[in-house]
Amino acid sequence: AQTTLSPQIAGLTCAGSNINLQVSQVIGATYQWTGPNGFSSTIYNPSIPNANTSNSGLYSVAMNILGCGVFRDSIDLIVHPAPTITISPNDSICQGQTKNLILTPTGTAPWRVGYTDGSKTDTLTIVTAPYTLAVSPKAQTTYTLLSITDANSCTAASLTGAPNVSSTVSLYAKPVPVFTVSAPACENQLFSFTDQSIANTSGLARWYWNFKDGNTKDTTGGGTFTKSFATWGTYPVQSLVESNKGCLSDTVTTNVTVHPKPVVGFILPKVCLSDASALFTDTTTIADGSAAQM
Q1: Phi then psi dihedrals of residue 291, to 5 deg
Q2: Element (H, E) at 194
Q3: Dihedral sign computed on CA atoms, order 104, 110, 114, 117
Q4: For residues 227-254, average pLDDT
Q5: 260 cis-preceded (ω within 30 degrees of 0)
Q6: Comparing C-alpha atoms, which of 110, 166, 158 is closest to residue 133?
Q7: Residue 275, Cα to own-chain centre: how many angstroms?
Q8: Omega into 130 within 30° of 0, i.e. cis?
């Protein structure tokens, strides 16, 4: 009767693993396996210890059953390299910004990648390489790769101590805009604006002003400057500063009150030359109603 060997590969076929070959065991039969790199074995289920990609190739087996003949078969073995992965770069960003970290795996997609940010661990499924991981840390954070498994279920033996498996993202603190305005003034009179902004981790490079009267100011210097407002009212003046690292502050708003000028007026009395005095009536007005305070 014809005997079918149907050789099989048991378990994983990853570099660094022990790969097991096998055929059905027949009592009383003898076996002869041959393969790449001078591989030879006389058992029905031989193992290739600590295999590598050079062990890939055709493995042939012959089974000799006394009185029944010799039966032959073969199987093609592909030893898959262990996957690797790197992460980059190390960088510094402004507080509140997002940094794209680049993960570059090798092996067969898709991959499952474990990583930690020092406080929690997570697992990514990566379909195409390279992969972009967007992070927005609240403080300096190091992102470290822990493991990788590819579509062949092959894993890296250990990522500990491997090159380029961690990236540190540092933060530049936001600058803080601060300014003062001189005592209240009237329309068309000059106000003094004095910048007192705080740079924090680096110097200041630009100052942005919006006076809410249709005018803005963009300058590379702080200090003190003057400005007038053509119409009375309350103006929510806004200031924004930028550090020399390109970090923008939050916007600070201060209400600047511009007073109207008084409109002077009076009523002439009817008076005779013989009268001891004359009563003049003041009709001066101020548009914001503050005339009552005079």
Answers
A1: -60, -30
A2: strand 190-195
A3: positive
A4: 96
A5: no
A6: 166
A7: 88
A8: yes
